[in-house]
Amino acid sequence: MRVIPFDASLGAEIADIDLASDLDAGTIKKLNDYWAEHLVLCIRGQNLSPQDFIKVGRIFGDPFRQIYGQFNHPDYPEIGLLTHKDSDIAGSGKRKIRGTSWHTDASYFKKPPAGTMLFAITVPNEGGDTEFLSMRAAYKALSEEHKVKLCDLRSIHVYESSRSPRKLIKRSPGQVKEFGEQAKHPIVRTHPKNGQKSIYLNPIRVEKIDGLSRQISDVVLDDLYEHLFQSKFQYRHKWRVGDFLIWDNRGVLHQANDDYDWRNEQRELYRIMVKGERPF
Ligand code: SIN
Q1: In 77-187, which ranges are E strands?
Q2: Is the per-residue pLDDT at 158 higher than 80?
Q3: With a 6 A CB cut-off, is 130 part of the ligand 1 pocket?
Q4: 42 near 243, Cβ under 8 Å?
Q5: Phi-psi region for residue 129, left (φ > 0), alpha (ψ -120 to 50) or beta?
Q6: N or C: which end of the chain has fewer CB within 10 A?
Q7: What ligand 1 atom has the least distance to the C-alpha of 100?
Q8: Hey, how many other C-beta atoms are within 10 angstroms of the C-beta on 88?
């Protein structure tokens, strides 16, 4: 197994490993260590059946229940499907591609998923990349004074923030009831494995900073997002069929791109999330 860090502030490719083989405990530990260190791992050229993908998912943690049952794999509900023809079934019914602005997954849960994995089944020739942004590198780049100002702040995460740059797909009343409404999380989040800190914010879900007036909260959030969105913290992944990719929701924002010729080209990825701890 070789580790080839990306030429970016996060991420690494892991080469010379077949995820469908029986991996020993030492290899599994190394993969988890690399994941904590690099935040995004890509393993190319994999040949995974749905059962293999589920097995690989469990290397990184216990499965986090899929939030939108309508996108589940028909035979393997532990797997969600992302496709070029997804639609907002509980809302307008129109085609709607999820994830097309910076976000971290399901942060309105008290214990949001630690990680998300994708496996590329079909990808367009051009476009459909996924972008990643290191909230860890962004934290490191803050001045010491700024870090101290942020260290005791918490933000309120809801399903869809009134500040969200895009409309999210609608949830059915059952999903709202089942999965709850909001959580408060620290703005400076510590990684449980290596103690590294990240800015933990979510542009689609953070409504406000707890205890601040709306006006001051908006100013602080706008300022932090301007810092976060700098290109020096970003990496853009161009998909190939057979790519397995995992990211750490505790230290990474990601966004999908709906910029491909979806009438003529297909994009289909399997998706699994794994459970995480209460942010601290
Ligand atoms: C997501 O999980 O937000 C979607 C990522 C993608 O389709 O590129």
Answers
A1: 80-83, 115-122, 130-134, 154-158, 182-186
A2: yes
A3: yes
A4: yes
A5: beta
A6: C
A7: 3
A8: 17
By DSSP bridging, strand 12-15 and strand 40-43 are parallel
Q: Is the dihedral of CA 84, 85, 91, 92 positive or negative?
A: positive
Q: Are 100 and 257 in contact (CB under 8 A)?
A: yes
Tens-digit pLDDT profile for residues 105-144: 999 999 999 999 999 999 999 999 999 999 999 999 999 9
Q: How far is the C-alpha of 132 from the C-alpha of 254, rounded, in Å?
A: 4
Q: What is the reported pLDDT for 88?
A: 86
In single-letter form, the type of residue at position 49 comes to S
Q: Which of 66, 98, 129 best tests ligand 1's pocket when mutated (most atoms within 8 Å of CB)?
A: 98
Which of 250, 228, 233, 245 lies closest to 123 in space, CA to CA?
Answer: 245
Cα–Cα dist 1/16, whole Å: 5
Handedness of CA 70, 72, 74, 77 (dihedral sign): negative
**Nearest protein CA to atom 6 of ligand 1, as residue:** 256
The first and second tokens of residue 276, run together, are: 């995480």
Question: From CA 129, how far away is CA 109, in angstroms rounded?
Answer: 27
Is the predicted pLDDT of residue 178 greater than 80, yes or no?
no
Q: Which of 154, 113, 119, 110 minimizes the C-alpha distance to 41?
A: 119
Residue 19 Cβ contacting ligand 1 at under 6 Å? no
Q: Please tell me the distance from the alpha carbon of residue 31 to that of residue 25, in angstroms, as a whole number.
A: 10
CA nearest neighbour of 259 among 114, 99, 115: 99
Which numeric CATH code is attached to 2-274? 3.60.130.10
- Write down the pLDDT at residue 89: 82
* pLDDT tens-place string over residues 39-80: 999 999 999 999 999 999 999 999 998 887 788 999 999 999
Return the H-helix or E-strand segment holding 222.
helix 214-228
166 lines ligand 1 (CB under 6 A): no
